Amino acid sequence: MTVVPHAVTAGREMVEAAMRAAVERLDPRMRRVAAYHFGWVEADGSAPRGPSGGKALRPAMALLSGRAAGADMARVVPAAVAVEFVHAFSLLHDDVMDNDRMRRHRPAAWTVFGVPAAILAGDALLALAEEVLLDRGTTGAHRAARHIAATTRKLIAGQALDLGFETRTDVSLDECTVMSMDKTAALFACSCSIGAVLAEAPNRLALALSGFGEDLGLAFQLVDDLLGIWGQPEVTGKPVLNDLRSRKKSLPVTAALGAGTPASTRLALLYSQPDPLTEPQLVEAAALIEEAGGRAWAESAADARIAAAEARLAEADIPGDVREEFLAVARFVTHRDN
Amino acid sequence: MTVVPHAVTAGREMVEAAMRAAVERLDPRMRRVAAYHFGWVEADGSAPRGPSGGKALRPAMALLSGRAAGADMARVVPAAVAVEFVHAFSLLHDDVMDNDRMRRHRPAAWTVFGVPAAILAGDALLALAEEVLLDRGTTGAHRAARHIAATTRKLIAGQALDLGFETRTDVSLDECTVMSMDKTAALFACSCSIGAVLAEAPNRLALALSGFGEDLGLAFQLVDDLLGIWGQPEVTGKPVLNDLRSRKKSLPVTAALGAGTPASTRLALLYSQPDPLTEPQLVEAAALIEEAGGRAWAESAADARIAAAEARLAEADIPGDVREEFLAVARFVTHRDN
After folding, report:
1. Chain B interface includes A235 (CB < 8 A)
2. Spatial separation of the C-alpha atoms in residues A115 and A95, rounded to whole Å
3. Fewer beta carbons within 10 Å, N or C terminal of chain A?
4. Residues 138-167 in B contacting A (C-alpha not used; CB under 8 Å)
5. Contacts with B157 from chain A: Cβ below 8 Å
6. Nearest 10 degrees: CA dihedral of A92, A97, A101, A105?
7. Quick check: helix, strand or coil at residue A107?
8. E strand segments, chain B
9. How confident is the model over B96-122, as a mean pLDDT?
10. DSSP label at A318?
11. A6 and chain B: CB distance < 8 Å anywhere?
12. Which family does it belong to (chains A, B) (predicted)?
């Protein structure tokens, strides 16, 4: 397990306090779902029995991007809150759409509060993401809110494409990459630049940071896809071989299916059978993906993306300590185990 | 049938053109769901076979509120687009949550494209509502976007409360009014003032228009609730006695249940039985609501709200022709049959 970088822990309390204050604006029902999702309470409203909640990478990056622009951390907290709310919105809705029952070692919100409450809580957090930014009357807040809205549009396009993949057998690696760019990398790009946008930094800086975030986000997704197949359930908080059970056309799977090897053909056969895959079939599918080169491809693609991200960061005119912390986040993303 | 007021038809083409241009930004899958929802295409993507789409009251009021502030209609079109997108977002999601299969004489979007696509399309339109406003860099656009975000929060609180009513037998008329205020009147209040906000009118004017919209919105909901029981399905586009079938605790139902008459008791008994209500039971429930005074109460409450709305409008310093058109919309709202 890699050590959590300083940037991720540094502003955590400040961001969480702001998140809690914003969630207080919601009506009691939505507040409860949101508090459960963020790991602040258990399902019955009692104090959490253990540490939970997400990795909070996105708010950390948002704060870093503010510091990259020379802004005081406190000034860009709304940007960190906004990206974490958009992330939460997408998780709450995706779990409903993908029928995923586990999230961060706990039952997904929809299994606890019902589908309608999970949909509504996602809606509420999306609207609240805009509101916390627009509460500030500055030009930077205006631009940051627009950044969030445009990013949300991409994120939705990615999820729509992903859902479309479910019924298709001809998904190309290019399409799958476009999907991951929209579904994951877009919010990383936004997170890595929104602090700078809020702080009214020059466009050039925001673009460089956004480019860094985009490459980092794709690397993150590649690692996520690998963990979705070969991750330890007790660490990831999701059921073993979860992505294969739902026959997700993730990047390593798509690479394996398109590799043209005998293992690719057998994998395609397994993925196209109508009945749910048995446990032995899931294990076989994972082995076939590895045999067809999907695992090795994803691992080297993640490394390449991190290298590209680092190159993009090298172009950005930012303080040395901020650069170091961004790089630590990048290393954390590729070496994490959950 | 009441004649559609001039205000509703006047800016319709301009608003629809702007809506279509904004929807073009969405990815093809979401674009298709949105186009179907707005009645621009049939489910298979072909040209619509007949007139459909909604009444477009909210965009009409948004344009009027811009004119109330002396703004050119073209300048406040984004406000009209934004409120119609938020309305569409809420309908797309509510139909999923409420399991409503019909909308505007056609199958609801989720029955055609599936639940995930309907959820995502709603999400996309909510984000797009913010984006069309924030595309303008003005202070008015910033405030209007914030207005939309805060209104969405209320709308969600109302829907959450409404969903909570389903499992309760002790809903008071006060609670039901609060629910309708949030679920319906908030977006009416926003629609009647957002054009003025976008045009940077004085706060006082925006508040007066918002107050008018709030009363008008509650009147609208009361009429909606009456139509949900006694409306003609061929005119409303929804199944006969739809609200009673799902045992909605709408305003007339709640008034009847709380009236303390023998009919109230029989209605409570019907509403609490576990099996789906049969057609004769639905007809009986409607008769009991009328007998318990729920219908008469809702009719007179709607009239009282319209009178209050008119009084609020009288306080607003706006051009005479705009006032006349607002009043025409108010009359249309109470005398409509769909």
Report:
1. no
2. 10
3. N
4. 139, 141-142, 145-146, 148-150, 152-153, 156-157, 159-161, 163-164
5. 26-27, 29-30
6. -40
7. strand
8. 102-103, 106-107
9. 94
10. -
11. no
12. Belongs to the FPP/GGPP synthase family.
What residue ranges define each of the domains in chain A, with the CATH number in brackets?
A: 6-335 (1.10.600.10)
Provide the ipTM.
0.94
Helix (H/G/I), strand (E/B), else coil: B246: coil
pLDDT of A236 > 80? The answer is no
Exposure string over A194-225, b if 16+ CB within 10 A, otherwise e: bbbbbbebeeebbbbbbbbbbbbbbbbbbbbb
Q: Which of B30, B33, B119 to mutate to test the interface with A (most CBs of A within 10 A)?
A: B119
How confident is the model over B78-89, as a mean pLDDT? 98
Rg (CA), chain A: 20
If one counts every other C-beta atom within 10 angstroms of the C-beta of residue A172, the result is 11
A 10 A CB-CB count for B302 gives 22
> How far off is chain B from A22, nearest CA to CA, in Å?
11
Q: What is the pLDDT of residues B5-39, one digit of tens each?
A: 777 787 889 999 999 999 999 999 999 999 999 99
Contact indicator for B206, B185 with CB cutoff of 8 Å: no
Q: For residue A57, what are the CA distances in angstroms to A162, A309, B117? A: 23, 16, 28
Question: What is the rounded CA–CA span in Å between residue B143 and residue B149?
Answer: 10
Q: Does B181 touch chain A (CB under 8 A)?
A: no
